[in-house]
């Protein structure tokens, strides 16, 4: 095993594995990589660390603090109390707990409830499910002007069963152990409890056939229920040059991604839907 090189390359010193079969091809001597070493070994490592550093630092840049963002002109969202129900994307797991919900409030002077717990599902599988938190953590006496629910990627990742659209509109008839049954329960409960407009939002396109099927099932439910969809899966192009600047991974935006990419699109669709509903 070759000695690791100069202490001025501290990150590589501690983190770059030199106990590899190709070490003699990658190092000209104990301090200097070969051309092949730079191209195939050191450069990818440095690139990876630069991306990691960017993803950490973008979340602490002052311009992405909610209190520092520019406000929109008064609009139909202004003064509304919006309830958000979701998991890690609604919470802002890759952005230090700041998400579109916080930016929409800051930009449009809304009040909001952010009922978001990472890793949770639509399917009612315990006290942290969407349904249980909606029932137990959002007061029925709350004045809710718009209810926005995340179409959870966790259900797709867990392989939760899709289910079928029921013939009923009674809460007790829905199979909440399935994705569609849980969606129907949320739609009906929101209508009965707050009688306010409801929208679901999807994530942007990532490598998941199961999530794509969930998006299609959600659209089919519009044949039975009145609700809006913020469809970033089909309507917000993910094939953009800024993608790696905006996303921490295929599912979670960073603050830049929320503020510059997701939030304007979501605001547009929310304003369109509330205007359509005469709110």
What this model shows, in words?
GO terms for molecular function: hydrolase activity. Residues 85-258 form the SGNH hydrolase-type esterase domain. Keywords: Hydrolase. With 279 residues, the protein is an alpha/beta fold. It has two domains: 10-57; 72-276, 3-Layer(aba) Sandwich (Rossmann fold). It is built from twelve helices and five strands. It has helices spanning 10-15, 23-26, 35-57, 88-91, 100-108, 130-137, 153-158, 179-193, 209-221, 232-235, 243-246, 255-276; strands at 81-86, 111-116, 146-150, 198-201, 228-230. It has a five-stranded parallel beta sheet with strand order 2-1-3-4-5, with helices on both faces. Helix 9 links the parallel strand 4 (198-201) and strand 5 (228-230). It starts with 9 loop residues before the first helix and ends with a helix. Residues 1-10 have low confidence and may be disordered.
The largest sheet has its strands arranged as: 2-1-3-4-5
Low-confidence stretches: 1-10
Q: What would CATH call the class of the largest domain? A: Alpha Beta
How much is the radius of gyration in Å?
Answer: 23 Å
Number of strands: 5
How many domains make up the coordinates? Answer: 2
How does CATH name the architecture of the largest domain?
Answer: 3-Layer(aba) Sandwich
User: Going by CATH, what is the homologous superfamily of the largest domain?
Assistant: SGNH hydrolase
**Proportion of residues in helical segments:** 40-55%
The average pLDDT score comes to 91
Judging from the principal axes of the Cα atoms, what is the shape? globular
Mind describing the biggest β-sheet?
5 strands, parallel
Distance between the termini: 70 Å
CATH-derived topology of the largest domain: Rossmann fold
Structure classification: alpha/beta
């Amino acid at each position: 095993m070759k000695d690791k090189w100069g202490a001025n390359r501290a990150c590589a010193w501690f983190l770059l594995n030199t106990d590899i079969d190709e070490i003699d091809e990658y190092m000209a001597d104990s301090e200097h990589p070969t051309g092949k070493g730079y191209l195939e070994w050191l450069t990818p490592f440095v690139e990876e660390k630069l991306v990691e550093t960017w993803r950490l630092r973008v979340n602490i840049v002052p311009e992405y603090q909610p209190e520092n963002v520019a406000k929109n002109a008064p609009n139909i969202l202004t003064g509304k109390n919006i309830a958000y129900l979701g998991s890690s994307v609604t919470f802002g797991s890759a952005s230090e707990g700041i998400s579109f919900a916080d930016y929409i409030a800051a930009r449009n002077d809304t009040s909001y409830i952010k009922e978001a717990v990472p890793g949770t599902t639509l399917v009612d599988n315990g006290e942290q499910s969407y349904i249980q938190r909606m029932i137990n953590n959002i007061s029925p006496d709350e004045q809710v002007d718009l209810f926005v629910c995340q179409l959870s990627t966790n259900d797709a990742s867990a392989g939760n069963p899709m289910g079928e659209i029921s013939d009923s509109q009674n809460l007790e008839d829905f199979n909440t152990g399935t994705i569609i049954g849980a969606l129907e329960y949320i739609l009906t409960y929101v209508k009965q409890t707050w009688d306010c407009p409801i929208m679901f939002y999807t994530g942007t396109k990532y490598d998941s056939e199961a999530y794509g099927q969930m998006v299609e099932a959600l659209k089919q439910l519009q044949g039975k229920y009145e609700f809006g969809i913020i469809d970033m899966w089909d309507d917000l192009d993910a094939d953009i040059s800024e993608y790696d600047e905006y996303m921490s991974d295929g599912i979670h935006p960073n603050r830049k991604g929320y503020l510059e990419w997701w939030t304007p699109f979501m605001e547009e669709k929310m304003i369109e839907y509330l205007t359509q509903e005469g709110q």
